[in-house]
Amino acid sequence: MTGPQASPSERRDNDRLPLRAYAQVDGQPSLEAHVLDISLTGIRIALLQEHGISPGEPLELVIEPDMLPQALAPLLPLTLKAKVVHLRQHILGLTCEPMEAADAQRLETLIAQLTRTA
């Protein structure tokens, strides 16, 4: 007999923080998305149009400064290399890592600022 399965939040390395921002999913074709929440290692987005994305698929995600409070806007755009972990209709759960060292620093600063306001 096996024990109970861990819930998705228990399997996460970092807590996700609410964030409302626009994002661009680069691929063929590019897709527009809304960011729902973010952590140092994951992000949840809602795609705004039909897509053919599958679990396990690698993506590049660019979070745009539109919609953000003025204090957070200088931290963006932020480019993340992502992989689809789960997919429920138009909501995607992604693992992510920064593309460049500067993106890693901006992500850490963004998370720190969101933590202070949460």
Automatic annotation (TrEMBL):
Pfam families: PilZ (PF07238). Residues 10-113 form the PilZ domain. InterPro entries: PilZ_domain. This is PilZ domain-containing protein.
